[in-house]
Design brief:
2 domains, Porin, 4 helices, rod-shaped, alpha+beta, two-stranded parallel sheet, single chain, 322 residues, eight-stranded antiparallel β-barrel
């Protein structure tokens, strides 16, 4: 499995390098909505699993090993700075008590745990999406947190050399022990192309149980970490921008500098000026009798003459009536 996964990861790097110069052709609009972006992506990763985390804490074993781990992820980018990501991680954990005092009853020599699956859902916060200084970002940092369920099978060797396995004996005969865990991680993402990202990540996983290493010597909940590297592929049309890298400030600048937008503004100003001139023409009253020329049936009325609604002098109407 390790060789297959390594070969697959190497194979994926070849097309990534070959299309590194591909450029998108569609420009996103500031208020154009999510439909103008690619919001789904899938990732493959591999790295190191260890039964320790950076925050420290008690461990049942004095020494720990680094083992190969691998996984897959599916992400939905909800907004520029936030996404939801489902993760599946598999691999092994191991450690030993070679530095512990010999002959101490109850001290296990070593353990090895197979993680059949560690599946979780996380919220991912991008902390460098909006940049007022750079038009296009090629590096992005993130933090993540979530909730998951893992199935694992511990085995260990006792101080007298006996090998004990939990497989098939956990939870009333279940093949794997099942426990809830809380992942907390940080990562950095590098933009390779408009479709492909290179990811580095570190996740601390806090398990709601004390038997991930097969023992409960210190009666403290166990934990493990996963340091990974991988490739992430944006799904959807290549003509659309990946929302992960969309900088709304940059999009706004592009729109303000768009020649077609300036032309539309110019046309709108021309139409507005035309309307203003028409309004002024409607208000024009050449003889100053208070009736606009458009409705004045008696133009050139003498100044100061009293007129009716049609602009005609009132005395004229009285003579006509006789």
């Amino acid at each position: 499995m390790k060789k297959i996964y390594t070969l697959l990861l190497a194979t994926l790097l070849i097309p990534a390098a070959s299309i590194a110069q591909d450029k998108m052709t569609a420009k996103a609009k500031t208020f154009g909505g999510r439909d103008q972006f690619r919001t789904f992506s899938i990732g493959l990763n591999g790295g190191a699993l260890a039964p320790v985390v950076l925050t420290g804490g008690n461990n049942d074993y004095t020494n720990w090993d680094i083992n190969f781990g691998y996984g897959i992820s599916l992400r939905k980018q909800v907004a520029n700075s936030f996404g939801l990501q489902a993760n599946l991680t598999m691999g092994d954990l191991s450690g030993n008590n070679s530095d512990a005092p010999g002959g101490v009853a109850g001290i296990y020599k070593s353990f090895k745990t197979k993680i059949a699956y560690a599946a979780d859902l996380r919220g991912v916060i991008n902390v460098a999406t909006v940049d007022f200084l750079k038009r296009e970002n090629n590096v992005n940092f993130s933090i993540s947190f979530g909730y998951g369920l893992m199935g694992y099978s511990p085995s260990y060797i006792t101080s007298d050399g006996n090998s004990v396995t939990w497989e098939g004996k956990a939870n009333g005969g279940s093949k794997y022990v099942k426990e809830v865990y809380l992942p907390l991680g940080a990562g950095v993402k590098f933009k390779v192309t408009d479709c492909i990202n290179f990811d580095l990540g570190y996740t601390m996983n806090y398990v709601d149980g004390d038997n991930v290493d097969g023992s409960r010597l210190k009666k403290k909940n166990d934990k493990f970490s996963y340091t990974s590297l991988g490739l992430e592929f944006a799904l959807g049309s290549k003509l659309k921008q990946d929302l992960t890298w969309a900088n709304p400030v940059s999009n706004m600048y592009d729109e303000l500098n768009d020649s077609s937008l300036r032309e539309e503004v110019k046309k709108l100003k021309t139409r507005t000026d035309s309307v203003d001139q028409s309004v002024e023409d409607l208000k024009k009253d050449s003889d100053g009798d208070g009736v606009a020329d458009q409705f004045d049936k008696c133009p050139n009325t003498p100044a100061g003459a009293k007129v009716d609604g049609a602009g005609c002098p009132l005395n004229v109407l009285k003579k006509d009536s006789k």
